[in-house]
Amino acid sequence: MNATNSMNKGANTPVTASGVRVEVGRAAGPGVPEAQATALLLSDGRVRHDGDVVQRHRPVHASGAVRHEGDRTEGGSVVDVLAVDLGGVEPGVERIVLAATSDGGSFAGVPGLYVRLTDAAGGTEIARYDSVDATVETALVLGELYRRNGQWKFRAVGQGYANGLAGLGEQFGVAPDAVRPTAPAAAPAPPAPAPAAPVRPAPRAAPVRLSKVTLTKDAPSVSLTKQGGISGVMRVNLSWQAAPARGWLRKPGAGGSDVDLDLCALFELRDGTRGVVQALGNAFGTLDRPPYIHLDGDDRTGGTSGENLTVNLDHSAAFRRILIFVTVYEGARSFAGLHATTTLTPQNGAPVEFFLDECTVPSTVCALALITNEGGELVVRREARYLVPARGVSPQRTVDQAYGWGMRWTPGRK
Predict the structure, then answer these.
(1) Which CATH superfamily hosts domain 3-175?
(2) Where in the chain are the domains?
(3) What predicted TM-score, i.e. pTM, was given to this entire model?
(4) Pro residues bias: where (predicted)?
């Protein structure tokens, strides 16, 4: 695999080698900012301590499984080399993030930046990702090695942070002084100090959650890829307050606590497979095999937990598009007055939320959000589109026709 076959963002590939060499290369020359490679060993999405950060000034992980072997010059390029013994990685480490940090400028001024994996035994290239769209970032996650069902995989990421080390810290729990853009300069040895009490290690900083993103009419979309939400699972939650304000909105005999909304998803995979995940017909989906979407259950009240869908982002390359929609199953004739809130929470990255407070028609089906795979980049777009089914047409068929899914529908019960 060469630069012309560079992986797209979000693409992944199996890694069957027991050990790999990771090369992080970039062009060198006058005015090009200094840069170096860093490996972050993650447990539950965070580093456990500063020792889980491997780079030039801390070149060997305590387990011995990850080593920074320095850099070398090849023509007009500088290449940092990391060695990873995948068989020796501690069981508690589920991901190894491969990042680069720059000093003296953003990665827009660092041409030819790439990450490349080779088999440590034979030198065969396994994967390569070339960064071609960096702008203001001073810290960049190029890729990651991660475990899935006992198998190591590599994913191309290409996610950057304009605030550099602070961005890495917020995302992965790295202390600001644990990652240094360049190797520290040597200093004269100070005089021997007088004996002093032992220094206690600094307490680990509390995890910092990325700021929530709120989608509106004026700002209707966000890239999950750029937010870092391209791995693990994503929880889609719908909650509501079941109290329609006007009698014409309430079905006869329905009390305020009897409003039942159903969270659903139409999906289309890249292989052409199409389908629906919903409580109706017990089509709850599956998380570890197609469609990689699962409905947790059927909430009848919308209270504290609401309804939840889970999307397996480790298989994001399999998705073409996912339409999240909601239907009024019983208790109301419209979404007006229900004050529903939709929140998408990736395992990694910022939560995304928007509100459904704008319904002015007797709608019983609403398209909430459209997730599309655009060249390996996952984009979420707020739809908040209220649809009114024609007489005798189901809410599901109505949203299908509005978005051109082309499925065949039969009556279902739950």
Answers:
(1) sav2460 like domains (2.60.60.30)
(2) 3-175, 213-403
(3) 0.49
(4) 187-201
